[in-house]
Amino acid sequence: MSSSVVTITDAEFETEVLRANKPVLIYFWASWCGPCQLMSPLVNSAATTYSDRLKVVKIEVDPNPVAVKQYQVEGVPAFRLLQGDKLLASAEGVISKDKLLSLLDSHLN
């Protein structure tokens, strides 16, 4: 089982997220977004730490407007935690490692 972050597009969203067999953390980002560069190592770290019970995907906002609209992403970086099509948690902007981990812990226990 790979612990890496999977890069997806709108076209792959249903297969990779909605049909996943465990909760999925979606990381919305943009190439022009400075704060997104800061969050990338944290996202990779979460993917490794929780690889046994969480899938982590990243989706670039500009080429993928469907997911952005569907999950009401207003700014990047943004996070959405889904189980199937149910939204468990969301966060926008730069968040601390502690905040991300506690958000995940509260839903993955």
Automatic annotation (TrEMBL):
UniProt keyword Electron transport, yes or no: yes
Q: Which residues form the Thioredoxin domain?
A: 1-109
Q: Which domain of life is it from?
A: Bacteria
Tagged with keyword Disulfide bond: yes
| Range of residues in the leader sequence | none
Which UniProt keyword terms apply here? Disulfide bond, Electron transport, Redox-active center, Transport
Q: Pfam families of this UniProt entry?
A: Thioredoxin
Q: Which InterPro entries match?
A: Thioredoxin, Thioredoxin-like_sf, Thioredoxin_CS, Thioredoxin_domain
The family database entries (PANTHER family) matched by this protein are listed as:
GEO12009P1
In which family does this protein belong, per the annotation?
Answer: Belongs to the thioredoxin family.
Q: What is this protein called?
A: Thioredoxin
Q: Which organism is it from?
A: Brasilonema bromeliae SPC951
